[in-house]
């Protein structure tokens, strides 16, 4: 199945559809990553906070797929914000992964109360300029955070990975990302199943002969979003990948959009401070 590709604002390309490895035990990660690549995924989304970067790198090596065919993402965790700390954290990530470079490196959260994300971003720019990472971006950034990065460094992130699903459609932030030339990537794209019983989704699933999860992932794809569902089960990995050969109608898309109720499954980026309990 041909993968749709997205062009980033630095001229590079990435697959639109990938898989994430959040909450996968490090020991299980090599098999999950290798199976995903066997199915046809070419985008693997990891992070230092997931504590399975070693397994991710091993799975890539075990897969037999050429490294230059795989788009690998990792993320800087919150306790390593700041210019020099970010450089050290990147070195640690690369040691764990055992890879020569990353395709994409993200600041995981803005942490506005710490006010270190601009200096952190400058470190990522340096890593990009040194060729150690191909592209750089952010996760969970809101408009003020994005505009400050651009205003103070002149460099826009290529991608903003945000919580996005039918219960949290994020239309205003998606519009800001588009205006700034930033790809929107959806995490928790299935919303932990909280909209699976919605008639709009069940009706579309019945019409297309697909599962409700496939309908939701297709909704992301048709909105032009990059999407990274996760699963450890081979049959679910295959199901999540099989969303590229059917189409939702404009009416079905609008009906799913209308499920938005601003419901977050994770923290609000404006308030989140990892040093405090949620």
What do you see in this structure?
The chain has 278 residues and is of the alpha/beta class. It has a domain at 13-193 and 224-232: NADP-dependent oxidoreductase domain (TIM Barrel, Alpha-Beta Barrel), CATH 3.20.20. Helix content is 38%, strand content 15%. The chain has 10 helices and 10 strands. The protein is globular. The model has no long low-confidence stretch (mean pLDDT 97). GO terms for molecular function: oxidoreductase activity, acting on the CH-OH group of donors, NAD or NADP as acceptor.
Structural class: alpha/beta
Largest sheet: 8 strands, parallel
Low confidence ranges: none
Mean model confidence by pLDDT: 97
Distance between the termini: 41 Å
Query: What is the helix fraction of residues, given as a range?
Result: 25-40%
Tell me the strand order in the biggest sheet.
3-4-5-6-7-8-9-10
The fraction of residues assigned to DSSP E strands is 15-25%
Q: CATH architecture of the domain at 13-193 and 224-232, please?
A: Alpha-Beta Barrel
Tell me the CATH topology of the domain at 13-193 and 224-232: TIM Barrel
Question: Looking at the chains present, what oligomeric state does this protein adopt?
Answer: single chain
Shape: globular
Give me the strand/helix succession.
EEEHEHEHEHEHEHEHHEHH
E-strand count: 10
Individual helix count: 10
CATH class of the domain at 13-193 and 224-232: Alpha Beta
Radius of gyration: 18 Å
What is the CATH homology-level superfamily of the domain at 13-193 and 224-232?
NADP-dependent oxidoreductase domain
Region (Disordered): 259-278
Catalytic activity: hydroxyacetone + NADP(+) = methylglyoxal + NADPH + H(+)
Keywords: NADP, Oxidoreductase
Active site: 50
């Amino acid at each position: 199945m041909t993968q749709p590709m997205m062009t980033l604002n630095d001229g590079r390309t990435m697959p639109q559809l990938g898989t994430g490895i959040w909450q996968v035990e490090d020991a299980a990660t090599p098999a999950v990553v290798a199976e995903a690549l066997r199915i046809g995924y070419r985008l693997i989304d990891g992070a230092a906070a997931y504590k399975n970067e070693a397994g991710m790198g091993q799975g890539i090596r075990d897969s037999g797929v050429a490294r230059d065919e795989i788009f690998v993402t990792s993320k800087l965790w919150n306790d390593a914000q700041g210019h020099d700390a970010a450089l050290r954290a990147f070195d640690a990530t690369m040691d764990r992964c055992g890879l020569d470079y990353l395709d994409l490196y993200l600041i995981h959260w803005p942490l506005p109360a710490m006010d270190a994300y601009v200096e952190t971003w400058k470190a990522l720019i340096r890593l990009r300029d040194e060729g150690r990472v191909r592209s750089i971006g952010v996760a969970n950034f809101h408009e003020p955070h994005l505009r400050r990065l651009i205003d103070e460094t002149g460099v826009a992130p290529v991608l903003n990975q945000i919580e996005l699903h039918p219960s949290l459609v994020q239309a205003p932030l998606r519009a800001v990302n588009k205006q700034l030339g930033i790809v929107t990537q959806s995490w928790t794209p299935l919303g932990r199943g909280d909209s699976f019983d919605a008639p709009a989704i069940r009706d579309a699933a019945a019409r297309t002969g697909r599962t409700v999860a496939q309908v939701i992932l297709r909704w992301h794809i048709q909105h032009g979003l990059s999407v990274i569902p996760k699963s450890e089960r081979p049959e679910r990995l295959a199901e999540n990948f099989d969303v590229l050969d059917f189409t939702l109608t404009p009416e079905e898309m609008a009906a799913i959009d209308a499920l938005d109720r601003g419901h977050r499954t994770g923290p609000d980026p404006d308030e989140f401070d990892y040093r405090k309990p949620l």
